[in-house]
Amino acid sequence: MDIHIWYTLLSALVGGVMGARGRLGEIRSIEMLHKRFESFPEAFAKTLSPQRISSRPVPQDSEAATKMYASIFSPFWNEIIKSLREEDYISNREMDLLMMPSNCGTLRLVQWPLFLLTSKIMLANDYASDCKDSQKELWHRISKDEYMAYAVKECYYSAERILKSIVDGEGKLWVERLFQYLNESIERDSLLVTINLKKLQLVQSRLTGLTGLLDTRRDC
Ligand SMILES: *[C@@H]1O[C@H](CO)[C@@H](O)[C@H](O)[C@H]1NC(C)=O
Q1: How far is Cα 209 from Cα 220, in angstroms, rounded to an integer?
Q2: Disulfide check for 71: which of 67, 103, 214, 217 has CB 3.0–4.6 Å away?
Q3: CB of 96 within 8 A of CB of 114?
């Protein structure tokens, strides 16, 4: 009998220690999921899909490497989300928020599922309108939340792409010149001098309206 109790205690203890070492049960809340999601692609690619990495060279540049891991991880993640939808655990809207972009395109930035990025742009915009110091300070504040930084960058790239894709001729040249100008002032750390950040709220609402229009056009 005694040995039985000892065995139970010992196995619970060993199991607990092994679980803790394997970081089992570490993700208990949605905040934890947000925090840890960034490390999923690399962990997945290295642990569960090593032959896929060995077949191609891992880029030296850390951002390019993360992008590559994300492209390996996203089809698997999306399969899980799709099956959750098929089983009716989540709605269509939830599925859209959870799906991860394929990350196979030419954009060098890693694209994350929308649930990690929602509301970040609005918050970043608030930071921008409050900002009284420098571009560096503002970027520092935004990058404290890495998903906010991703959201801002993706939004900037996408705005240029979308605008370029819907206009041609004179309009395209205008967009090109605008973004060249913005890029240059970002490089020179003088964005706050070049544009009035308070007006960004207006730009945001116009761009949101535009994407809404484009979306209904697609549905027609
Ligand atoms: C502006 O910078 C972004 C990011 O580096 C780049 O993708 C884009 O092509 C640049 N646009 C212009 C017009 O130089």
Answers
A1: 17
A2: 103
A3: yes
Give the tens place of pLDDT for each residue, 104-132.
Answer: 988 889 999 999 998 999 999 999 998 88
Best residue among 175, 183, 186, 194 to mutate for probing ligand 1, ranked by most atoms within 8 Å of CB: 183
Output the six-digit token pair for 126: 């608030």
**Beta-carbon contacts of residue 116 (< 8 Å; ≥ 6 apart):** 34, 37, 147, 150
Return d(Cα 126, Cα 200) in angstroms, integer: 9
Residue 29 burial by Cβ neighbours in a 10 Å radius (0-12, 13-18, 19+):
exposed
Chain-centroid distance of CA 47 in Å reads 22
Task: Give the pLDDT confidence score for residue 117 in this predicted structure.
Answer: 93
User: HEC profile for 88-145?
Assistant: CCCCHHHHHHHCCCCCCCCCCCCCCCHHHHCCHHHHHHHHHHHCCCCHHHHHHHHHCC
pLDDT digits (tens, 9 = 90+) for 71-82: 999 999 999 999
Which residue owns the Cα nearest ligand 1 atom 12? 180
Give the lowest-confidence range in 15-19, 25-29, 36-40, 136-140.
Answer: 25-29
For residue 16 the two structure tokens come to 């607990």
With the CA atoms of 205, 93, 97 and 200 taken in that order, what torsion angle do they form, in degrees rounded to the nearest 10? 0
Q: How far is ligand 1, taken at its centre, from the CA of residue 182, in Å?
A: 9
pLDDT tops 70 at residue 217: no
- Which atom from ligand 1 is nearest to the alpha carbon of 178? 13
